[in-house]
C-alpha cells in the first residue's frame, strides 16, 4: 500500500485535529483511503521541533503534559526549527497550519516556499500564502512537479474550490459570491433579533466565534483575503487584496436591519468576484440587503456559503461550515487525498 | 481530437436543448471540452427516427416546421424505431430523455438496457430507469465495460450525485436530506403569503412549474423516486419505492403554516435517507416544519437542495435548479464529460 509521510508545521487546533484523525482511525483510515499516513515531523512555536523518520508516536505527542516540549522526546528540541525541518524532513507532504498573517503572509509563505523548493507537496489552511503569494507559489509547485493544495483556505473543509474545479465541467462561471465569515454572519443574525452590534459581537466572542480583536471579521478583511482566492482560483484573475473594494458591517444599524426586514430582506456581508462585460474581474466586500429568495439569504449563524453564477445552469450554491477544528483538519485530509490522486494519475500517465 | 457520437432518444425539451448547445457552440465547445460531439441518431414519438452516421445537421433538425417528421430527411422515417436505432446506431453514447414512468420505468428501462447490452454508454435524466432498475442496469453497464450516468435524475444539472461521489472523499455520509421538488416548494412558499394550497397549485400550473396533474409533485411520489436514487447511490442501499414511507403536502393547512411561522419555522417537503444505528437505511418523504437555521429552511421557490450529514465536516448542502430545459440538458453534458473522462482513464490504465 502506498504511504505518505507528513510534516506538520504548527501544532495548534487544526494540525492537532488531523493528528487525532490519523491516530484514532488507525489502519481503518488507510483501508478507506487506499493509502497509509504517517507523521514524521512536527514543529510548533511552543513545543519546538520533532523529527522521527520512522514515524512519530502520535498518541504520545497528543498526550503530552501542559508545558512540556519536544525536547524530552527522541529527535526533539525545544525550539521550532521550521525552515530546517521543512527542508530536511523525509516527509513528502508538508502540512502548513500556522496563523494567518494578512499583511505579508509570513512566516507561512516562507514555510510553503521552502517545502515546494525542496520538492515536497504542500497542503495549507492558511489564507495568507494563498491570497498574497498564490501565483508565485503555484509557479514553484508546477516547476517542481509537486502539488500546492489549499481547499481549507476558504470555508474550512467545505469543498468550494474543488467544487468549482471538478463539479462544474463545461460551464462558464461568470461570478462567485459568498458569505465567507461566520462571525459577521452570526452578528447580523443576532442584530435581527434586536441586539446591538456591540452586544452581538460580545456574544460571538463569548461563544468562541469571534477573536479578541474582531476587526478582521467585522470590517471584512478576512473576507477580502478569501475573495482574492476565489477570484484568482475560479475566475482565473490575478488580483491582490488592494484590488478588492472593502466595506464591513460596522456601519449597519438596527434601523437598517428593521427596514430591510420590513421589505422581506436580510443584511449579509457579501464577498463577490465578477467578470464584467470587458472581461475584467471586479471584486468587492460589502454588506448587501438580500431578498429572502436569494440563495445566500437563508445562510444563518456561523454557516458559510458560496454561489456560482454559470451560463447553462444558472446559480448553484454550496453551503457548510466555514470554520472549526475538525472541519478544517478535514480540508487538509481532502488535500492529501487530492495530492495522492494526482501522483497516481501522473504515475499512470508516465508508466 | 477524440469525438463522441450521440444517439438522442426522445427529442423533447431536454434533448433539443442539448442539440442547441452542440449546434450553437460549434467548435468552441470541442475546444473547451477537449473532445468533439456529433449527433448521429435521433428518435422521437412525434418525429420518427433519423440516422446519419456521418453526423446529422442539427440546424436543419432544430429548424423543422411544426408537424414535419423525419420521413422527409435522408435516413429518416416517420415512426420511432427506438429499439432498432439504439441497437444499430454507430453512436457510442445513447442519450435517453423520454418521459418518466413512475410505475415500471418503461419504455426508458428498455431503451437503457438495449443501449448497454449493445456496448454503448448511456446518460439519462429519467428517474424511472435509475430508481426502479438502477441496480440491474448498473450491473449490465459494468459487465459491458461501459458507463451508465444519470446526474440529471435528481436535481437536473445541479451536481448532487457527483458532489457526493467526488467532493467528499474520506468522509462517511450518514444521511442525505433534500428539497427535491420545486413545485411543492413553490406552493409551500406561496401558502406562507396567505394563499390556499389550491390557489398556489393553480398559480404554479399557470407559471409552468406544475403539471396538469400535480399529484406526483404534491403527494411526494416524484420525491420518492429521487430518495430511492439518493439512498442507493450515496448510502449504498438497495431499496425500492415501496421502502420509502411517503406523505405529501396536501394535508398542510393555512393554520399549520401560520403556527410554524410564529415559531420561526417553515414547512418544507423533505426527502430523507438515513443510516440508522443498526446500519439499515431508512427513507421517508414527509412535510417537516424546519427551524429557520436549518440549511434547507432558506431554499425558496422552485430551487432544490440536498444536505449531506458527514462525520468530520458536519452538514454540507448543495442547492441549485431542480428543473429546467437547459439546466437538465447540462446534466446530460456533464454525464458525457464524465463518460469521456472515464474512457480516458481506462485507456491510460491499460496502455
TrEMBL record, chains A, B:
Pfam families: Homoserine_dh, NAD_binding_3. It comes from the Bacteria. GO terms for biological process: methionine biosynthetic process; threonine biosynthetic process. L-homoserine binds at residue 211. Its EC number is 1.1.1.3. It is an enzyme of class 1 (oxidoreductase). Residues 10-151 form the Aspartate/homoserine dehydrogenase NAD-binding domain. It catalyses: L-homoserine + NAD(+) = L-aspartate 4-semialdehyde + NADH + H(+); L-homoserine + NADP(+) = L-aspartate 4-semialdehyde + NADPH + H(+). Pathway: Amino-acid biosynthesis; L-methionine biosynthesis via de novo pathway; L-homoserine from L-aspartate: step 3/3; Amino-acid biosynthesis; L-threonine biosynthesis; L-threonine from L-aspartate: step 3/5. Signal peptide: none annotated. InterPro entries: Asp/hSer_DH_NAD-bd (IPR005106), HDH_cat (IPR001342), HDH_CS (IPR019811), HDH_short (IPR022697), NAD(P)-bd_dom_sf (IPR036291). The active site is at residue 226. NADPH binds at residue 127. PROSITE patterns: HOMOSER_DHGENASE (PS01042). Keywords: Amino-acid biosynthesis, Methionine biosynthesis, NADP, Oxidoreductase, Sodium, Threonine biosynthesis. One of its GO terms (molecular function) is NADP binding. Residues 159-337 form the Homoserine dehydrogenase catalytic domain. Its cofactor is a metal cation. Catalyzes the conversion of L-aspartate-beta-semialdehyde (L-Asa) to L-homoserine (L-Hse), the third step in the biosynthesis of threonine and methionine from aspartate. Belongs to the homoserine dehydrogenase family. This is Homoserine dehydrogenase. It comes from Microbacterium azadirachtae. The gene is hom_1.
Amino acid at each position: 500500500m502506498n504511504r505518505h509521510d507528513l510534516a506538520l508545521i504548527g501544532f495548534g487546533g487544526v494540525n492537532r485535529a488531523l493528528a487525532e484523525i490519523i491516530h484514532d482511525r488507525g489502519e481503518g483510515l488507510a483501508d478507506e483511503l487506499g493509502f497509509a499516513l504517517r507523521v514524521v515531523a512536527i514543529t510548533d512555536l511552543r513545543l519546538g521541533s520533532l523529527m522521527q523518520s520512522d514515524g512519530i508516536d502520535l498518541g504520545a505527542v497528543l498526550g503530552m503534559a501542559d508545558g512540556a516540549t519536544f525536547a524530552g522526546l527522541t529527535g526533539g528540541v525545544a525550539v521550532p526549527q521550521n525552515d530546517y525541518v521543512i527542508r530536511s524532513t523525509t516527509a513528502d507532504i508538508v502540512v502548513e497550519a500556522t496563523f494567518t498573517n494578512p499583511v505579508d503572509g509570513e512566516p507561512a509563505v516562507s514555510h510553503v516556499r521552502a517545502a515546494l523548493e525542496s520538492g515536497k507537496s504542500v497542503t495549507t489552511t492558511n489564507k495568507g500564502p494563498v491570497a498574497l503569494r498564490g501565483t508565485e507559489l503555484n509557479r514553484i509547485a508546477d516547476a517542481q512537479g509537486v502539488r500546492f493544495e489549499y481547499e481549507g483556505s476558504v470555508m474550512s473543509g467545505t469543498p468550494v474550490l474543488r467544487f468549482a474545479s471538478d463539479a462544474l465541467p463545461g460551464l462558464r462561471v461568470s461570478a462567485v459570491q459568498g458569505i465567507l465569515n461566520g462571525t459577521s454572519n452570526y452578528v447580523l443574525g443576532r442584530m435581527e433579533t434586536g441586539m446591538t452590534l456591540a452586544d452581538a459581537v460580545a456574544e460571538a466572542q463569548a461563544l468562541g466565534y469571534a477573536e479578541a480583536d474582531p476587526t478582521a471579521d467585522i470590517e471584512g478583511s478576512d473576507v477580502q483575503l478569501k475573495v482574492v482566492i476565489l477570484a484568482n482560483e475560479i475566475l482565473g484573475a490575478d488580483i491582490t487584496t488592494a484590488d478588492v473594494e472593502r466595506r464591513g458591517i460596522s456601519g449597519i444599524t438596527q434601523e437598517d436591519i428593521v427596514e430591510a426586514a420590513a421589505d422581506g430582506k436580510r443584511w449579509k456581508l457579501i464577498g463577490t468576484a465578477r467578470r464584467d462585460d470587458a472581461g475584467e474581474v471586479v471584486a468587492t466586500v460589502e454588506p448587501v440587503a438580500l431578498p429572502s429568495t436569494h440563495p445566500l439569504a437563508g445562510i444563518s449563524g456561523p454557516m458559510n456559503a458560496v454561489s456560482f453564477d454559470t451560463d447553462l445552469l444558472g446559480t448553484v450554491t454550496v453551503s457548510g461550515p466555514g470554520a472549526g477544528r475538525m472541519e478544517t483538519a478535514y480540508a487538509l485530509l481532502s488535500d492529501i487525498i487530492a495530492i495522492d490522486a494526482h501522483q497516481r494519475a501522473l504515475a499512470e500517465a508516465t508508466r
